[in-house]
Amino acid sequence: MIVTYRQGRKNDCRKIAELNYIASEGAIEYLFHNLVPNMTAKDVLSYGLEKDVYPHSYKSTIVAENEGQIVGSALSYPAKFHCITAELKKFLSANRLDHFRSFYLSRVEGSYFLDAICVLSKYRKKGIGKSLFEHTKKKALSNGCHELSLIEFSDNKKAIKFYRENRFEQVKSIDLKPHKLIPHNEGCVLMKCAL
């Protein structure tokens, strides 16, 4: 299997949105559920990526491609952009934002934030996730950042193990109340690793 890595393109938005949706494990569904008439949460996310408003843009994504098919992606940007923006305040209802307030207020200053990383299930355990990490680390260094950070659900033991194997350490626990659309019960953790 030959996998190539490149920056996302506008025509990749739907696939990137699908991968980010999987990576969010319910968070995107919670935030965008029934937000725009006749649009699913994935539709809303894809539309946002296509608008190319930094940092939530297809240009902020590295995609892994095999035989012309996108099989994985990593969305990342400087951590200072992981926050509640004026655009988010206009777009999301106050109660949805309040539910995620601690999440959006948690970051490692000066780091590069890995917002979402996902590999399609049939392509996992082939080194693609590790390669996406390596490409993201190079991207972070080229942008003058010497730490990579991310947020993961505390009870996602498999993902936490993967991150620890990639030298991430826990920085902070983040309160996130359970909800029927988010199948996690123990909040989140902010993690970082030195590059």
From TrEMBL:
Domain called N-acetyltransferase: residue spans: 3-195
Pfam short name (any one): Acetyltransf_1
Coiled coil (UniProt feature): none
Entries under PROSITE patterns matching the protein: GNAT
This protein's UniProt keywords: Acyltransferase, Transferase
Domain of life: Bacteria
UniProt-listed InterPro entries: Acyl_CoA_acyltransferase, Diverse_Substrate_AcTransf, GNAT_dom
Protein's UniProt name: N-acetyltransferase family protein
Organism (species): Microbulbifer epialgicus
